[in-house]
Design goal:
heterodimer, A: mainly beta, 14-stranded antiparallel β-barrel, 3 helices, 21 strands, 5% helix, 54% strand, elongated, B: alpha/beta, two-stranded antiparallel sheet, 15 helices
Amino acid sequence: MTRLRQVAGGIALSMFLVSLAHAGGFQLNEHGARAMAQGGAFAARATDGSAIYFNPAGLGFQNTASVYLGVSAITPATAFYGPRQKNPGEKTTLVSMTFTPINFYVTYPVMDRLTAAIGVNNPYGLGTEWPRDWAGKFLTTKVDLKTFFITPTVAYRLTDYLSVGAGLSYATGSVLLERAVAVTSIQLPEPPRVSISMGAKGVGFTAGLLYKPLAELSIGVSYRSSVKVDAEGNASFNPNYPPLNLPNGAVATKITLPATGFFGVAYRPLPDLEIEADVQYIGWSSYDVLAIDFKANNSTTSSPKNYQNTYILRFGGEYTLDMLHLRAGYLFDRSPVKTEYVEPLLPDANRNGYNVGLGYDITEHFSIDVAYLFLKFKQRDAVNTIPETSFDGTYTTYVDLWGVNFGYRF
Amino acid sequence: MNAWRITFAAVVALVVVYCTGCIDAGPAASGPNLGNATVVRYVAIGNSLTSGYQSNGLYKSAQDYSFPNLIAGQLRLAGANIGTFEQPYYSDPGTPGADGKASRYEIISLVGPVIGPRGLTPGVPTNTALSRPYDNLGIPGAVVFDFLDTASFTSKALPPRSNPLFSLILRNAAFGRNILSQARRLSPDLVTFWLGNNDVLGYATSGGASPSSPTPSTAFAALFAQALDSLRAALPTAKIVVANIPDVTAIPFFTTLGPKIRPSLPAGVTLKFQNHGETGPGTGSTSLTDNSVLICLTGSTYAAYLGKPGGKWYRDKAYPALPPGIDTNQVFGFHPQNPWPDALVLDPAEITTATNTIAAFNQTIAAIGAAKNAALVDINTFFNGVKANGYSWAGQKYTADYVSGGIFSLDGVHPSSRGAGILANQFIKAMNEKFGMNVTYVDLGAIPGIPAPLAKTTTGIPVIPPEAFSELEMLWGAR
């Protein structure tokens, strides 16, 4: 109960301070409580506004106008044991934070077979904050990445069995990076701290196909393109020591947010039971390096990432009792981060997710969904980390995620 | 229908049960400890590297970060009841040079940069009332021979050694007439033994001039075997750690000046220098484009005189007359008859001599150390890695570059405080592996860097006055 109260407080305080964090890499997968309660296995059904994210073709089978609005509360708990270069047993815990990504979808059947929709959500995000003077302060003390995707979408039902959909995503984002700067040679009263904040914009697209060969069976395929974002901003060093020629001022970087695709199969063994299995592919190899250009001295700091393409397996189901929908799911999310690249900026690991939730149709028009997801990261040993990191140790992480959505169908 | 309800309930129950029991406790790491070992007294035997000598002087604020003192701190954290690690402190600004002023180099200005002694009144020895030998028996200038040598300490303060630090550190013949007997008197259960650097370093830093050859490898092997035999016999159960000799040609003392001089060579002109043993016209010639010829940091003053007629080197060295064949009306450094002096250059033959000598020494150290059941710290391999790739530690990058690299102090030979931390961690690693200890490492991020006035910086040829190097000659000169 204590935890519930804390989460509620978090929502109240930061409802629209959208942020971040917790699927493999810096992807977020909480885009609607109905899908979230079912392990995110939703691409073969896509029966609410979150179809804009999971499979735009799902909109083609939605014959009513709707509004679907929700928020998630994500509370990661990470501990780091190390660094082994200093003390393998020293424990540092991530500063406690709650992130609240939102989702908001409006759908409208423009004419028979054609549905238009628009969605706003946060497909990528990341946030970690470590104690200001911890052993990894020269690597990171804080990172906060936020993205907003605004995605106008149309779907067309070609036949009673087949629908296609596509959308255009306009992405905006911001990133804040903070750390201490290592000056290995001369003595300084205290190390300078750098705070880099950048804003970014980019454009991508989505497309999907949903096929219902039988009344009980549906198959969905969807694709979300990578998004190249050009980020620009400012770096400030504090305290600033003139002889160090620290590159205060303009900074820029380019990041490619990875492409992702879903393939899902849903089956209805009983009239009131739906089950679905999905595999999601994420093209994380687009994230090979984080190179920040400092204009003040035309220098670049490069941090190799070399993420690998990866996948998430998703399983979920929904059991309907009159107005009540009981949901559960499971997911396995394979980390895109190779062992030697594991870093406190994003202490990634393979993870199992256990989902439960329920939906309730309050009236014919109005519904509410809630979801809970427990993400258990596999204990991750970072060994022989790359020289840029040189920070070996062990990370343990688990995350509580709550989601609530309100739906209105006209 | 009921079956589905039950299944669903079971899944939910599974999640609830799993979530209450599945939070990782983290790795089963025991805290810092000594394993089965006990350490009640730790004694460090060595030379300037062990003493905490730094930036051309011995002074308290550097001795505080001597690698043995850092090791002692980590041992204490691991439960070793070693009390105070006693060192022969010399208050800042430290030991005097030949001119009677403190010999310590400081960054006088980052513009230039200008580096050298400030002409300060030297410090004084402060831990002289200690009624037993020091735990840190590192003596700047000590060679392997000194470990067993029972000649009076004061005699070493006289020419040819002219090294007063034996008297300072060994102090009292009643504590023992050589390093071994003073160490034995302390009955240590842990000893680090790192001698041999000076048996080749002095040859190298004097440009192969003084002494004109390293300790011969066979003599070194005999001396080293005798030293470890005696140490093991005196302390049969002690844990002994030996370290080998790094490649001296990679220290900033040799790698800094050549690349700085190179841009000042006019097109088509090469640096003319004296090869090993030459006193007259130089037969050496280099374009300084590779590291086949190394210019000593001691030449920093003379770099400003390149390409101009003159004989500052001969005036500074108080030559009664110019050596035969030398003509200081010729341009300095660019003409064979006014060559870059032998003492300021390590020519290819000298580099080969130093390198081969170190390889032979290290074979001896490895073989005899193993025979005496000592842990070996392979500083040579470690430092070759540092030279090639730098040294990274939790987001900090250290290199072997002069001043900016962070590892070396301002004399370009001795480690900085942070460099000493890196050394201490290599010793701790070897000790943990050999003795089954779990001693944690020194936090490099918590060690101060080299003091510097925070003014605007440029990168030019470091300006170091020639007299500043007299201490180096004292340390490694004639013996």
